[in-house]
Specification:
Order of helices and strands: HH
Number of domains: 1
Oligomer: single chain
Helix content: over 70%
Number of helices: 2
Mean pLDDT: 84
Distance between the termini: 163 Å
Structural class: mainly alpha
Shape: rod-shaped
């Protein structure tokens, strides 16, 4: 029994033809090359991840140093603020004392003038 063109047309819906089979194998070959490319991409990504891990660890070290420096800076600012507060209170005290001394000098001058007037 021979296969006729009509049989081929009926079976073409169900079965593969030679050209379809060849295109399928060609697609498989391209899939293999895609897998090879993906493998190389994955290896590149792995190396990038290791580089990023090193950079992150370096960044963590720098952040810890920054935190230490920031604490020292805050302590220094606190010392400066305390010094300015002490200076401000000292200026207040000196101003009050200056005013008192000035008043005493004015009173002393007035007493001298009154004593000179009596003489």
């Amino acid at each position: 029994m021979a296969i006729t063109k009509e049989d081929i047309e009926k079976m073409s819906e169900v079965f593969l033809t030679k050209t379809e089979f060849r295109s399928f194998t060609d697609e498989n070959l391209s899939v293999k090359s895609d897998v090879a490319v993906l493998k190389s991409d994955v290896s590149i990504l792995k190396s990038d991840v290791s580089i990023l891990k090193n950079k992150v660890s370096d960044l963590e070290v720098l952040m810890s140093k920054f935190d230490i420096g920031q604490e020292q800076l805050i302590r220094g600012q606190d010392k400066l603020l305390k010094m300015f507060e002490n200076l401000f209170t000292e200026q207040k005290i000196n101003f009050v004392q200056y005013r008192r001394h000035d008043d005493q000098l004015i009173n002393h001058e007035e007493r001298i003038v009154t004593l000179e007037a009596k003489v």
